[in-house]
Design goal:
Length: 468
């Protein structure tokens, strides 16, 4: 996620970065450093261990990403850096960001090892070598235990969102993995909260770390929190009414159980919203597809369990809705932390029934409830998304690059540059965001045309439908 420009913040040129890195950061939209970057990068680039107290949306991925990339040597076949993340989604997004940051380092291989994907594919990928491994503790531990992963040359170990990893019960796996990494490594640990177990883990893994804490006060001010009292009103009907009233450009609606996610997503779809449900009942491929569609604007609403509370990295999420309040106040903080990122403002909405008062009081945030009956009914149906996504059945293995796709769509198909949005190239598929009017033209043009003298099949990507 690129940072919002701030004339008062230091620039990356003030750091001891290799040639070409600052130019790449500028191209990616990183103009000035966020507080966590300004305070943590100098000691990390100097090789010190860092204990970072920072939540999501603070720019910590770019901070530890630049630090670990500065210490690796590409093409050594065995990884020089290992990043552990609590969820599949976060690991995938961290790996994507590292690939962007690594553009000045040709031939850098960044491998993702996460559950829900093929073990055979992992083995094949590791067989071709890896410079950086990003993964979840369970899958990394499995490969390590079976002798498929050699960590003897790791110089930097990163634990991202360590508190969440401990909450999920990964302490033994993390400890075992850390023992397999050379003891003279650099260890970077980031956590939004620092309970005793997190500090104990840091003490056991780090050597004289620099303690970097970024206050969350500025982010909290940017979030407008609104509580609606249901007072017996139907919760789903109230949600439809509230979303219609506020009309956020994008929103994540959090539910506590996967069955409720499917129910809510179905109701919102019936009301005309471009929506999908995401929870642990979906396979990894479907979850990645939903995150892609939501991230590029092809979906406006995502209904999710807390599986997405920390793995979702959307730079400009307009609103977060607590369809149900979580039982843990820390989870509430993590949920609303998905919005108001990188200097933007955001909206956090909570629905509170008669039996939810205890949960609301536990948040200790002095929030007054508004009667949902005062919310006016929507005057118009929700607008459709501004973007449609198509999938071209070719990717990195065919050496496709975003520029190749843009060239074919503009030169061969005749689309304007403004019709083309975000492009994501994976190993086998390239996803392209297009304006709704341009998508049919693109599919028709690709059916009869070529990209780099080769014909590729393409189709529109549709979100998996919620279960009924």
């Amino acid at each position: 996620m690129a940072d919002a420009a701030d004339d008062g913040a230091p620039g990356f040129a003030s750091l001891a970065l290799p040639p070409g890195w600052v130019e790449n950061l500028t191209q990616l939209g990183y103009h000035t450093m966020t507080p966590i970057q300004a305070r943590a990068l100098p000691p990390m680039l100097a090789g010190r261990d860092v204990l970072g107290h920072a939540g999501t949306g603070t720019g910590k991925t770019a901070a530890f990403g630049l630090a670990l990339l500065a210490r690796i040597t590409p093409n050594r076949r065995r990884p020089g850096a290992l990043v552990l993340c609590p969820t599949r989604e976060l690991a995938t997004q961290v790996a994507d960001e590292l690939r962007r940051l690594a553009r000045p380092l040709p031939n850098t291989k960044i491998v993702t090892l996460i559950g829900g994907t093929s073990i055979g594919r992992d083995v094949g990928t590791l067989g071709h070598g890896a410079d950086v491994v990003v993964g979840t503790p369970g899958r990394v531990h499995d490969h390590l235990a079976r002798g498929r992963l050699d960590l003897d040359e790791v110089r930097t170990l990163v634990l991202d969102e360590a508190d969440r990893m401990l909450e999920l019960g990964f302490v033994d796996a993390v400890t075992t993995i850390a023992r397999a990494v050379p003891p003279d490594r650099q260890t970077l640990l980031f956590s939004a909260t620092f309970a005793d177990d997190v500090r104990a883990l840091a003490t056991s893994l780090q050597r004289d770390p620099v303690d970097v804490e970024v206050a969350a006060a500025a982010d909290a001010v940017a979030v407008t929190e609104v509580v609606y009292a249901l007072d017996g009103a139907d919760r789903v009907a109230a949600l439809v009414r509230i979303l219609g009233h506020h009309a956020p450009a994008s929103a994540v609606v959090f539910c506590n159980q996967r069955e409720r996610c499917d129910e809510v997503a179905t109701a919102l779809r019936d009301a005309g919203h471009a929506v999908a449900a995401m929870h642990g009942g979906l396979d990894q491929a479907d979850r990645e597809t939903l995150l892609l569609l939501f991230g590029n604007g092809s979906l406006r609403v995502l209904v999710a369990t807390d599986v997405a509370a920390r793995g979702l990295d959307i730079a400009d999420l307009a609103a977060v809705v607590n369809f149900e309040l979580p039982r843990d106040p820390a989870v509430y903080v993590h949920r609303i932390g998905r919005t108001a990122r990188a200097g933007r403002r955001g909206l956090a909405i909570s629905l509170v029934g008669r039996g939810d008062r205890r949960l609301l009081d536990a948040l200790d945030r002095d929030l007054a409830a508004v009667d949902v009956a005062t919310v006016p009914a929507p005057a118009a149906p929700p607008p459709p998304p501004d973007v449609v996504t198509i999938a071209i059945e070719g990717g990195r293995r065919e050496r496709l690059r975003p520029g190749d796709v843009v060239g074919a769509l503009t030169t061969e198909v005749g689309l304007a540059g403004a019709d083309i949005g975000a492009i994501k190239v994976t190993d086998r598929v390239t996803y392209v965001a297009l304006t709704p009017a341009a998508a049919p033209r693109a599919l028709a043009g690709l059916a009869r045309g070529m990209i780099k003298k080769r014909r590729y099949r393409a189709h529109r990507v549709v979100a998996p439908a919620p279960r009924r």
